[in-house]
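Work Package 3 (structural annotation) set out to generate three-dimensional models for the target panel prioritized at the project kickoff. During this period the team completed the workflow that converts sequence records into discrete structure tokens, so that structures can be stored uniformly alongside our sequence database. As a representative example, we reproduce one entry of 357 residues exactly as it appears in the project archive.
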Amino acid sequence: MNRPVTMRQIAERAEVSIGTVSHVINDTAKVREKLRQRVLDAIRSLGYQPSQLARGLRRNETNIVVMIIPDITNPFFPAVVRGVEDVAYGNSFRLILCNTDNDPRKEISYLNELRSYRPAGWLVIPAADSVMAAQLESAAASGAPVVCLDRQPPGWKGDVVLVANEAGAHSATRHLLRMGHRQLAVITGPLHLTNAVERLKGFKRALAEAKVPIEPEYIQEARFNRQSGYQAAARLLRMLPRPTAIFACNDLMAIGVLLAARELDLHCPDQLSIVGFDDLDFAEFTAPALTSVYQPGYQLGTTAARLLLKRIQGSKQFPQKIVLPSELKIRHSVASLSPAPPSPSRLRQREEALEIR
């Protein structure tokens, strides 16, 4: 394996001092054109590649943006990361991606260790049990701006980019109510996360507006993954009376609900209606296709990255809270409650009519 070319080798090839080589590479002092050309010729012939990290550390700044995400296996997050990367790359920044596995200790470890690399800024989607608000404030105070996205960690008062979680959940619940459901249940995410709290709030608000009561046991807390969604659904589907519809507060949990229903030989949507939240790509391909609340993952990433770049460039505005819209995508996982179950074609027509309205 070839070893990296050093400035000493360049100096020997060009027959100049190491200081002259350093001045040419780092543009720190004026060098006579004849000497400068000899250094550049030596750099080209030796194939020298300067260390961007070392250069950045010397200048006490780098072109690195660090992004911390809670679960790289969750199919919602790649679109968010892609949005961030596109904006960062287009503005000559390079992205370091860290996956915490929803482990707050790993989250703090990444934050503490990567601070020594002097990143230009941080983009953070907090872990489910995140307690890093104080550390984020410390990182921001040291000069590297921080933007949180998708979730707002407890106590964080800085920049944040979110989705209209409450409005999306309210829309999903109203759809179930319009289809005649009154025995509704919800599977939330961890209720110390702002997005989980807001989705539950939207669900409850829709029920209150329709004057439909809900039993406390019909509210099940899970962890935004398929297995916890499955476990929560298994509990709900053994209750009497059994809920006729379940609003799962993300699509992975909705898949868990579908699995639990199949194991109990319950047909969706005739015996159990299901709505998710995220509108991931697979929602169109489940059987039946999943009605879900769309949240714009790619736009979430680009919006947060642009806000971070403004901060890096020196914007001193008060902390911003940006909320992106969500939208209910109606498909075939919700049936109308009526004396005789509607045929698939009639159900499709009714859902399409509701979507148009």
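The first strand starts at residue 64 and ends at 69.
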